[in-house]
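Handout, page 2. Input:
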Amino acid sequence: MNAPMTHPLRTTTFIGTAAGFRIVAHPQHARLYHIEFEPTVIEQFLAATADIDCQRLEYVPFIRFTLAQTLQNLLGEDFGHTVRAILQDRASGGFTAGLQGVSAAPADYVKFGTAFAHLAGLPNFDSMSGSYYARFVVKDTDSSDSYLRQAYRLFTLHTDGTFVDEATDWLLMMKFAEQNAVGGESRLLHLDDWAELADFTAHPLGNHAFTYKAPGSKNVGQSIQRRTFFLRNGQPCICFIDQFVYPESIAEAAWLKALSDAMEASPGTTALPLPVGDLIMLNNLFWLHGRAPFEKNTALHRELMRIRGQFAEGV
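Output:
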């Protein structure tokens, strides 16, 4: 196997200050950035969108883009270019941002996340929720058919969109609420921080099209054929989730297990806390994500929002 991966050098390309915001190094991950706003910018954004409720966002698709336009008007057109550039930058591909305590209203969280999603591109339809975004709760007890809501299990590293027939270029997760939670950090792995990447991409099964099928809760009845590794801009990318891939032989199953085990054991996998009111956006093609188990607590409550989608053409 390859030698252990050293920790990446601090990513600095996009660090800087502009009117209304600044981009800083993320304090807990060398590849990520954090976007900080002047509080007045968030106040102005929320004031300008106060008459837009969540139902209108769900019923009228073009209103979602007006949120992105409102944020861009406050910060300048370069802000949208910067968001997309960070997400498409292979050395980084991710950032965090938040409402910085200006509001704790769930509707404002939805609008803030919607603005970022529509700066990045076009969100996909989320069949689980029947909308362009999904909100879900993790709590003490759960009877769902996947690890998404099961608090005390390791939610293994994966990419999103494995079982749908549209591209899933990026992912946004935003934390709405959290009480009595110990553990449950986001677990992240950038492909280039995984020492065994070359070994698995070179294997014949790395280019094999596996069948993916979603459980009933996802409201997706189709089966999809997906190759685990593929190239984008000459760089290896990945499509994988252990729960929904269906091998057809012992050899295929053994390779998939070895793949998952190797990523889970990688020193490049980092646990990252996300404060309430913050979002994280990641390039879904070369970042894997998961969740550490929570410690047992009957009063555990966490609510998250998920939006995932495609980059806009020509930007």
